[in-house]
Amino acid sequence: MVAGVSTIKTECVTQEKSNKTCTNPKKFTKAPIEHPTFTLSQIKKSIPPHCFNRSAFRSFSYVLQDLLICSILLYIAVAWIPTIPSPFHYAAWILYWAAQGSVLAGIWILGHECGHQAFSDYFMLNDLVGILLHTILLVPYFSMKYSHSRHHSNTSSLDRDEVFVPKQKFDLPLYSKYIYNNPLGRLLSITIQLALGWTLYMILNVSGRQYSCFACHYDPYSPIFLDRERAHVLISDVFMVVAAFVLYYLASSFGFWWLVRVYTVPLLVENGCIVLMSYLHHTHPALPHYDSTEWDWMRGMLSTVDRDYGFFNKVFHHAPDTHVVHHLFPAIPHYHAIEATKAIKTILGDYYWSDGTPILQALWREVKECVYVEQNDCTDGDKTRGVYWYSNKF
């Protein structure tokens, strides 16, 4: 196979170390699950040293660029779109929502970089910029920073990962087979996930790790957080309250529907972009998940996939097409991530995974193929213990 590219195959995958051949044909060549022979230090040495340099000046240039574009788009929405005759103004609003939501997603990614200390060499500056950028998007910065850091520490672990944790078949709701076995059900699932997935994750921890009690990103005493993190979570909540008052003032001054048109709908588009990217980075028929008996950090980090969003790779600051290197070295700023990704491919070989399938086609395929995870049945009645693959058979 070509290293890192998912290819369609119908033959069974042979686990060379165990000399067992699976009886169920799989469409996709599987990513390797053997412990890699390379180390994190070797991967790091393959990356040019300057890729680890962070420049506050350069990072701020991207913030100012995105805020400027947002301001121009807002001016167009307020000053120009209302002058467009009906029914053409409807198309103009749709274009505005798509453009503004995409740029807001880029701002979200810059705030996310602050949480990884990839924005600059100064921790306090990173957190200050991060909380301001994320508050604009109604994201509790510190809450997201802490839960997301544990996602990076436990990627692809069925027991400890924090987001997009797949279910096993016996954990699925009874209605799942009616949703995922027909196109209308899958379309409904995609729509709900993109429209409400981010909000449901923040408030109810939907698609997140299972805790023994209620988990919420706005609750400082949620089991998501450690005791030393609760004060910072409360600070994020205070910023959320301030943001709510600002939005209330804008709605009172300009009207509720004005606020919906210029801010709320683009925010929903931005949320959908983030959910789409996160889902497709960690959901692919070729990538394994591991339970606690088999999981280790390196293989978990390598169970992610780079995607190609075309023009939007640049709009999203190359978060879609450099996600593998981001998981290995999250402090690398986005403007060095392309170069770092090219460098690590020679070391990772087949452990590097990317998929150039058009995004909407990939989303439809993943929703259809990746319903739950299970261990592979093999010819001697044993299983590949601790390693789970996506399936959709009911």
Automatic annotation (TrEMBL):
Belongs to the fatty acid desaturase type 1 family. The chain crosses the membrane at residues 62-84, 90-110, 122-142, 184-204, 231-250. Residues 92-354 form the Fatty acid desaturase domain. This is Fatty acid desaturase domain-containing protein. Pathway: Lipid metabolism. InterPro entries: FA_desaturase_dom (IPR005804), FAS_N (IPR021863), Fatty_acid_desaturase (IPR012171). The keyword Membrane applies. Keywords: Membrane, Oxidoreductase, Transmembrane, Transmembrane helix. Its main location: membrane. GO terms for cellular component: membrane. GO terms for molecular function: oxidoreductase activity, acting on paired donors, with oxidation of a pair of donors resulting in the reduction of molecular oxygen to two molecules of water.
